[in-house]
Amino acid sequence: MPQTFTKSERLCSKKILGELFKKGSTSARTFYLFPFRMLYIPQAETSPDTEPPLPAIVITVPKRIFKKAVDRNLIRRRVREAYRLNKPLFSPQKPSPAYIAFLYTAKQIISFEEIEKGMKLALKKM
């Protein structure tokens, strides 16, 4: 699997984003794992002979905590790179979620190594 992050892996649909972030939504599931809060919608059942597509993701960093755009962008780049390097952790046997939202919850900018460690644990848990 090439280590790329293509347009098809980015979550852009307003309808799906609304469903993912809707309070009390029955289709979206959530869990916390430092430094992330993960929201995801499970994959619809597909035939076992086809390889499931990679999930579409969105990364959010709160403006309330990180006032400067450069700080938010730095965190977003680190999270995106950690995801890109570790997305092979999605096993082909187990269906991966269709859509994922990574909400950054740490109160300060943390190192790439810590973000990557959290990303690995989150992807394994999913």
**How are the strands of the largest sheet arranged?**
1-2-4-3
Show unreliable segments: none
- Roughly how many Å apart are the termini? 19 Å
- The CATH class: Alpha Beta
Describe the model.
This protein has 126 residues and is of the alpha+beta class. It has one domain: 2-Layer Sandwich (Ribosomal Protein S5, domain 2). The chain has three helices and four strands. It has a four-stranded mixed β-sheet with strand order 1-2-4-3, sandwiched between helices. Strand 3, helix 2 and strand 4 form a beta-alpha-beta unit. Helix 2 crosses helix 3. It is globular and about 40 Å long. The mean pLDDT is 84. One of its GO terms (biological process) is tRNA processing. Keywords: Endonuclease, Hydrolase, Nuclease, RNA-binding, tRNA processing. This is Ribonuclease P protein component.
How would you summarize this macromolecular structure in one to three sentences?
This protein has 126 residues and is α+β, with helices and mostly antiparallel strands. It is built from three helices and four strands; from the N terminus they run H-E-E-E-H-E-H.
